[in-house]
Write a structure and sequence with these properties.
By secondary structure, this protein is an alpha/beta fold. The protein folds into two domains: 293 residues, 3-Layer(aba) Sandwich (Aminopeptidase); 113 residues, 2-Layer Sandwich (Alpha-Beta Plaits). It has twelve helices and 14 strands. Strands 1, 2, 3, 4, 5, 6, 12, 13 and 14 form a nine-stranded mixed beta sheet that branches. Strands 7, 8, 9, 10 and 11 form a five-stranded antiparallel beta sheet that branches. A hairpin with a 5-residue loop joins strand 1 and strand 2. The longest helix is centred in the last third of the chain and has 23 residues. The structure holds (2S)-amino(hydroxy)ethanoic acid (HGY) and manganese (II) ion (MN) (2 copies).
Length: 417
């Protein structure tokens, strides 16, 4: 084992790299790094250096992904794709996404230092937009590689009215060329992503690692409630058409239905009020509704119950109601073969790792359209994520790096056979 690749040393090196990447953030608590932002551009410089140290050639693709390819991959060999997203939520943590970019690159760099030549090509991708924070889009980069990019996403606009297409062009992407990014499934061995668990299961098990069985299905809606503005002091209470009171009743009903339904979670995460003035009855409220379930029928029935309740509550107060679905990704299963290979690598490294379901979405929701997907979860402190205090330990980061190195080694032996 290379002296520097003692797991703890590896883990510490990885955490230092993630600290550096976390500096590429808007001011404020935690990390805020949005798609096609200055912070995105800054962090690509750092990732490109990691890629070069791993023996890969970095290149920004037309959809805003930074793709690092080894010579074999560039020469058309069958290729394992690894990676995760560079973007974050608002005031997020250092590890959601970026761990899955930095870790495989450190693993490849360490194998290279050990003189290990893999029998297949490798690509590591820093996907540009998985969270959808800036444009309410999501999975832009992974959908491009999977040949499932939806050009209408280019029309999505951010809070300043900038379209995704305009932002991508200004960033150095090329909307016209995105379709050509689709990978040929014949040349892809699979997609493997390392990611923090973002939940409490691995801590409860006291395991550093876990092997993902499936990713949850997700849908998002934009709900607009229309009322009538008026003077807060002179308009009688009876008969007001207060859009915010109506929205509040709807949101409370969303919470009641979600809590009353097994395998059904969701959130109203964003809410905007117009005209948003201290002494004016709210004329219009727009809020986001996100629903998730591993079971399609639960999500569909739950959605219908929620939308019916919103219509009923709107009618009670003579409010207008508009509901637009903005995103949907069906639950997907990880490939048995990749799960078994990850399990074997954990066993070889004497790392206990059982299986678990992912309540979070990941780029695998898109990459599964291209190839088999596998995910290795890393324990995170208090199961906390999408929060500035998101944390992992150097020991766990090192264990995950070592297991991925073993996985890559074993795959090489399988391919060479
Ligand atoms: O929302 C999610 O599950 C992921 O963090 N994008
Ligand atoms: Mn996330
Ligand atoms: Mn993530």
């Amino acid at each position: 084992m290379h002296p520097d690749c003692e797991p703890l040393a590896l883990g510490q090196q990885l955490l230092e790299r993630l600290d550096a990447a976390a500096e590429c953030s808007e001011p404020g608590p935690g990390v805020t790094r949005l798609f096609c932002s200055n912070e995105h551009r800054q962090v690509l410089e750092i990732i490109a250096e990691w890629m070069r140290r791993a023996g890969l050639t970095p290149q920004l693709d037309a959809s805003g992904n930074l793709v690092g390819r080894c010579d074999k991959a560039r020469a058309g060999a069958r290729t394992l794709i690894m990676g995760s997203h560079q973007d974050t939520v608002v005031e997020g943590g250092k590890y959601d996404g970026m761990l899955g970019v930095a870790l495989p690159l450190l693993a490849l760099e360490t194998l290279k230092q050990q003189g290990v030549e893999l029998e297949y090509g490798v690509e590591v991708v820093a996907f540009g937009d998985e969270e959808g924070t800036r444009f309410q889009s999501t999975l832009i980069g992974s959908r491009a590689l999977a040949g499932r990019f939806d050009p209408t996403s280019l029309e999505a606009r951010d809070a300043n009215g900038v379209s995704l297409g305009e932002a991508l062009k200004a960033f150095g992407g090329d909307p016209e060329q995105i379709a050509s990014l689709a990978r040929d499934p014949e040349t892809v061995l699979g997609f493997v992503e390392v990611h923090i668990e973002q939940g409490p299961v691995l801590e409860q098990r006291d395991h550093a690692l876990g092997i993902v069985t499936a990713l949850t299905g997700i849908e998002r809606h934009r709900v607009t409630v229309g009322g009538k503005a008026g003077h807060a002091g002179t308009t009688p209470m009876p008969g007001r058409r207060d859009a915010l009171v109506g929205a509040a009743e709807m949101i409370a009903e969303v919470d009641r239905i979600l809590n009353a339904t097994e395998d059904f979670v969701g959130v109203v995460g964003k809410l905007e009020v117009r005209p948003n003035a201290v002494n004016v009855i709210p004329a219009e409220v727009t809020f986001t509704l996100e629903l998730r379930s591993p079971r399609l029928e639960v999500r569909e029935q739950g959605r219908e119950a929620i939308l019916a309740a919103c219509r009923r509550l709107a009618s009670n107060r003579q409010l207008a109601l508009e509901i637009e679905q903005t995103y949907q990704a069906e639950a997907v299963a990880c490939a048995d073969g990749l799960m078994q290979s990850l399990h074997n690598a954990c066993r070889d490294c004497e790392e206990p790792a059982d299986t678990l379901f992912s309540g979070a979405g990941h780029d695998g929701l898109a990459m599964c359209e291209l190839t088999d997907i596998g995910m290795l979860f890393v324990r995170c402190t208090d199961g906390l994520s999408h929060h500035p205090d998101e944390a992992i330990t150097a020991a766990d980061a090192g264990a995950a790096t070592r297991v991925l190195m073993r996985f890559l080694d074993r795959l090489s032996a399988d391919v060479a056979r």
